[in-house]
TrEMBL record:
Protein name: Related to Zn-dependent hydrolases, including glyoxylases
Keyword Methyltransferase: no
InterPro entries: MBL_superfamily_lactonases (IPR051013), Metallo-B-lactamas (IPR001279), RibonucZ/Hydroxyglut_hydro (IPR036866)
Coiled-coil regions listed: none
Keyword list, A-Z: Hydrolase, Metal-binding, Zinc
GO molecular function, one term: metal ion binding
Cofactor(s) demanded: Zn(2+)
Keyword rRNA-binding assigned: no
Pfam families: Lactamase_B (PF00753)
Organism: Phialocephala subalpina
Similarity field: Belongs to the metallo-beta-lactamase superfamily.
Residue intervals of the Metallo-beta-lactamase domain: 54-262
Amino acid sequence: MASLDTLIQAPEGTKLWLLYVGDMETDEAFVYTGANAGSYSQPHPSEHKRRHLVQISALIEHPTEGLILFETGSGRNWPEVLGPPFNDLFKQVEYTSDKELPAAIAKTGHSIKDVKAVILGHLHLDHAGGLEHFTDTDVPIYAHEKELKHAFYSVATGSDAVVYGPHYLRFDLNWKTFHSDFLEIFPGLTMRHAPGHTPGLCIMQVNMRESGTWIFTSDQYHVKENYEQSHPQARDHDDWIHSNQMVHMLAKRTNAKLVFGHDKETFFSYKHAPEYYT
Ligand SMILES: [Zn+2]
């Protein structure tokens, strides 16, 4: 069925790769509000669930705009950058050098040096730490105005200093902000403001010729249960509820495939680089 939301199509020849850029393991309470909580009758739950999370980027080979990277993973030396005790709470696991961002991009036959633009759904360390690869370049770095302001404020005041980091939130990157709730940022690529996890988080939608509609949710949803059960892990609950409704309706209208921020099972149900979608 036709929908206004499928009219904006990526041009003929667009290729899409999903990139596998890291793994971490954490308590389920960090991805699913209320997980592992005790109760009056069972104050100390016997089972304390943990989650293996993946870090994900996407690379788009665009016929007129060149290579576009969506999110970057955490970048180099995640355990050292996080430092104790956070490197134990969000433990890097199953590290292999082929998950470093330049190596993950190389699997597509491209070089990170050929990336023409970077888009961030949000600026937390595990999604934007790889911006360290773009210092000393003029590559434009796109994020929503509200996200960039919140990120710099958080680092400068220490209000949210662990999840945002000063080593990639630098004044000398070529920041490009966008400002509206909806934007066709490049031909065929649309951004929607979806606050909740962070004030400026945006989802990205791509309507591909063969594989159909893709929605990259960033951390509006860490794992599929956040989406399927409308169960948040949100910092602003009301905003998250509003964004959740928007994504559900959009996904239904477009019959979209969703790529959640960190869901391992969903990620591995899709092809990932070097295989690609058209
Ligand atoms: Zn994340």
